[in-house]
Amino acid sequence: MPLRVIQWATGNQGVEAIRAVAERPDLELVGGWVHSAGKDGADLGTLAGIDPLGVRATRDLDEVLAIEADCVCYLPRNTSLDEVVALLASGKNVVTTAFLFHPRTLPPADLERLLAACERGGSTIHGSGLNPGNLSGVLPLALSGMSRRIDRLTLQERADWSFYESTHITFDNMRFGCAPEEVSEEASDFLRFNSGIFQEEVKLLADALGAGIDEIVTDVDLVLAREDHDIFGTVLRAGTVAGQRWHWQGRRQGRTLVEIDALWTVGGEYPSHWPTPADGWTLTIEGDPSMRAHFLALGSWERPLPMAEHVRAASIATAMQVVNAIPAVCRAAPGIATMADLPLIRSGVGFGFAPPHPAG
């Protein structure tokens, strides 16, 4: 019998999850939650740009809780621990790209609520994605298997948000186009939340690899635009924030062992005092032996494509990490299953000619 899946949210990643679930014989889409009133009651297939699936979206949490399902693919723009706790307590496993990458770092009261919900529902929570996610969690852990000793682990991300069409996230959440004093953990709830999930990822790696860190240090370097830029109809004004370099460092006795370095710009003005890595993600493991890997999600190898297609490819890669994890999460013991806990997640479709791995 296929696993019954509910899709929560139908943004850039949500629609890719719907398309993936729809084409897999081992998964069945049975429900969906949407934020917008305009999507309420719409067919999930239509929302994802494919043929209708006969499954209607709802904005009602109680309706979702009443659906018999094995797993909820929880991919909202704004997260709610209350929602996840309710889903888990109702007996539904939850996979998410939005948060909960290392739930054991939650405040004690929140962690107790989460674990109690898992116990009540006999359910499991798993968070992953791209970054934070596979590239800053699974890939370092996989490559660590070739190491005798690790001295330092760094994941560096370079991205130009000018090609990301969700301007609400770029300007309202990430605070590009704002005055510098508005771009900090102290000034923005979202930036504090966003910084927190990267700190979770640093702690996940540190715990899994025995780094024994005693602090995580966060800093941000802001760069102001020299001229105006039109970003999908929204103007980023000269003199406002056009570049953010966030740096999260897990340290032991003052020495950095695990770090994530994010170099994000809007408008194409790249500051000369920043390093100039290639677009995408570069993982460096210093040790015995040292190694480096670079990743870029591409729309195609075969022909030139606009950057928007490569951005979409990154959305696909993000969503697939949790969609492909659904069977493993449903088999896992109730509770928390992090990237360090689950077995290697593989494609659920593979080359498409036969099941990529045996059932059972």
Give short descriptive properties of this protein.
2 domains, 10 helices, Rossmann fold, alpha/beta, 26% strand, 360 residues
Radius of gyration: 20 Å
Largest sheet: 7 strands, parallel
Task: Output the structural class.
Answer: alpha/beta
* Overall geometric form: globular
**What's the SSE pattern?**
EHEHEHEHEHEHEHHEEEEEEEHHE
**Low confidence ranges:** none
Termini distance? 12 Å
Individual helix count: 10
How many domain regions? 2
- The count of strands amounts to 15
The proportion of strand residues reads 25-35%
Task: Please tell me the overall pLDDT.
Answer: 93
Strand order within the widest beta sheet: 3-2-1-4-5-6-15
What is the helix fraction of residues, given as a range? 25-40%
Structure description:
The chain has 360 residues and is α/β, with parallel strands linked by helices. It folds into 2 domains: 3-129 and 317-336, Rossmann fold (3-Layer(aba) Sandwich), CATH 3.40.50; 134-296, no CATH class. Helix content is 29%, strand content 26%. It contains 10 helices and 15 strands. It has helices spanning 12-22, 44-47, 61-66, 81-89, 108-121, 134-144, 167-173, 189-208, 307-323, 326-331, and strands at residues 3-8, 27-33, 57-58, 71-74, 93-96, 124-127, 149-160, 215-224, 229-231, 234-236, 241-252, 255-265, 280-288, 291-295, 335-336. It has a 7-stranded parallel sheet, with helices on both faces. Strands 8-11-12-7-13-14 form a 6-stranded mixed sheet, with helices on one face. β1 (3-8), α1 (12-22) and β2 form a beta-alpha-beta unit. α4 runs parallel beside α5 and α6 (134-144) packs parallel to α8. It is globular. The protein starts with a strand and ends in a 24-residue tail after the last strand. The relative contact order is 0.15.
